[in-house]
Write a structure and sequence with these properties.
A seven-stranded mixed beta sheet has the order 1-4-5-6-7-2-3. Helix content is about 25%, strand content about 35%. The protein is of the alpha/beta class and about 150 residues long. The chain contains four helices and seven strands, in the order E-H-H-E-E-H-E-E-E-E-H.
Length: about 150
């Protein structure tokens, strides 16, 4: 497990490059380090967060390529004041990893939401993320919102 104030890792942490990439991704998001986060992704990456249609991706086509992943940051990550990632379980094998987690976000107005999800990562041959899918339900996240 990498050292990060933004991650609580309650899961197995065997040495696996995809698991380590997921941890580096969470840490970069928590630090709001956009360029560092983008560097984790392959040029041909596909990001689906959440998988299926949502206000982030109405046509459910995913955010494709480095430009698409950067646009996702601006739409979904940039406006969030803070993040904390609690990983409850992790399954990794070869260039693949799936994490069962709760992502806690705080917005500028002080409201807080918890997103219960499974996030899946696949690395390319150079060790960069070529596929990231987050399985979560928008309605469940919206129902968890707490206002100050």
């Amino acid at each position: 497990m990498i050292d990060s104030e933004f991650i609580t890792w309650n899961a197995p942490d065997g040495d696996n490059p995809a698991r380590a990439a997921s941890q580096r991704s969470y840490d970069a998001v928590g630090r709001k380090a956009k360029e560092e986060w983008l560097a984790l992704f392959a040029d041909h990456a596909v990001l689906e967060d959440p998988v299926g249609p949502s206000f982030f991706d109405p046509e459910a086509k995913g955010h494709r390529g480095r430009d698409g992943v950067a646009a996702f940051w601006d739409l979904a990550i940039g406006p969030v004041k803070s993040f904390h990632f609690t990983v409850h379980d992790s399954f990794a094998n070869g260039p693949h990893c799936a994490n069962v987690a709760t992502f806690t976000t705080e917005m500028a107005d002080g409201s807080v939401a918890d997103t219960e999800l499974v996030s899946v990562y696949r690395l390319d041959g150079s060790g960069r993320i070529e596929l990231m899918r987050a399985y979560w339900e928008v309605e469940r996240t919206l129902a968890s919102i707490r206002t100050p």
